[in-house]
Amino acid sequence: MSPRTAKMIASIFFLAACAALPPHSETPAADGPALTIYNQDFAVVREVIPLSLRAGVNSVSYAGMTARLEPDSVILRDPAGTRALQILEQNYRNDPVTQQRLLQHFEGQTIEFLRTAADGYTTLLRGRIVRSGYQPPVFDVYGNLQYRGEFQPVIEVDGKLRFQLPGEPLFPSLGDDSILQPTLSWEIETDAPGSFGAELAYVTGGMAWHADYNIVSPEKGDLLDLVGWITMANNSGKTFESARIKLLAGDVNKIQPQDPRRAYPAAARPGMAKSDMSAVVTEKSFDEYHLYTLAHATTLRDGQSKQVEFVRGTKIPSQRLYVYDGAAIHAGEWAGWDSEGQRNDPNYGTQTQKKVWVMREFRNSADSGLGIPLPKGRVRFYRQGDDGQLEFTGENSIDHTPKDEDLRIYTGNAFDLVGERVRTDFKVDSNRHWFDESFEIKLRNHKTEEVEFRVVEHLYRWTNWEILDTTQEWTKKDSRTIEFRVRVPANGEHTLRYRAHYSW
């Protein structure tokens, strides 16, 4: 996809997200802002702001923007469509007044400092600001605003230098050009004077959300309880009071600088019953994505993270799988080899590993107590011990998962299960274009109950293959993978053998 095409898609999607707000009251602030937060560190914000315009050109400022606004994404319009608004000029300032900035502004000048003693007595000192210590933020190569911290200030008092402020600085007035919050200023031309609530929509960085899932299994059995949490994070530089929030799940294409350095609550009690209360979060399809809408308006403060529960399922049928994939082929060892060289090398594929993976599998269906699209996120597993205490047993992540799909999640390696894979024979006839390879796989079960191993073997030599001799039935998983299911008794061992014939 070309950059121009991608930009067009992103613009169309943004305009769709900026659909007209419901009719607003005479007090626009009462409507509260509306946020659509994406799990890619940005959000679409829609607010209703009061405007009072005269016919012709008007100078208007709106303080209280985010610190990570994308200025070229701003849309300002009359949602009622009764007047035309033309923005002749737009300016965005993100340099609000702080003590450090004012110290920099008066660098080299003498100001007063208010010093308060331990007994509450105050005195005024005059000091010259030799160095403020302020470092203005800069944009890095990825387009992100970076705050670089502060140096120690240097203040001269009575001819002596101090590496700290001698008291609270008292600054002279700066005039009308200073701002306290990031501000948008416009030169707006309109054909219809009057006061009204204008719709302001824009894209801002610094807002994200992700999903987390806590899964609890009882002391015995494989019925799971699942609670899903949504965590929203606001680092945009602005607090949103009583905001209506939607969360969009999916891989939305958005043009942004790539950072090559980047490569994701408490557990629920087992046996929870489904609640008859209304859902905190509702879900629906939107275009090729899924929207999760919070049922009630909430305040999302700057620098705050907030969690809400969005899915809950009880007694979900599942199965625990023990998977032995014994071939330990490390790609780095074969760097620079072509596929034919790898295929014909007798040592290729003979490396082995002994770990047996523990997998948990269940279906995201209504019959299982779920049945809604699950956004990608981290999954934590807990199991209840015989003393009733929950113990953490592993975690992994899932991708966006539609309803009625299976989830198979790796949670760790089995302690009491061991696999051992050894090649026992290798024959090649290059003139007749075939070779045979035989393996012996030993499975040891040190548990006190019978266990089923799922032994995965990869037919990596060539695309044309057949299994000639085997001690166990197998199933074909894909064009180059087969799987054996082997039951091993408690404290027992089983040996699996097979021979693969390749031809080309």
Labels describing this entry:
504 residues, ten-stranded mixed β-sheet, eight-stranded mixed β-sheet, 50% strand, disordered N terminus
Can you describe this structure?
With 504 residues, this protein is mainly β. Among the domains are: 3-95 and 179-205, no CATH class; 99-170, no CATH class. The chain has helices spanning 3-17, 99-105, 339-344, and strands at 34-38, 42-53, 56-63, 75-77, 85-93, 110-116, 122-131, 138-139, 145-146, 154-157, 160-162, 168-170, 183-190, 194-205, 207-217, 223-234, 240-249, 281-286, 289-294, 298-300, 304-324, 357-363, 377-384, 390-398, 406-413, 417-429, 434-445, 451-458, 465-470, 474-478, 481-488, 492-503. The strands form 6 sheets. Strands 15, 16, 21, 22, 23, 24, 25, 28, 30 and 31 form a 10-stranded mixed beta sheet that branches. Strands 1, 2, 4, 14, 17, 18, 19 and 20 form an 8-stranded mixed beta sheet that branches. Strands 11-10-7-6-12 form a 5-stranded antiparallel beta sheet, with helices on one face. The longest helix is centred in the N-terminal third of the chain and has 15 residues, at 3-17. It is elongated. Mean pLDDT is 80; it is low at 1-13, 15-30 and 255-279.
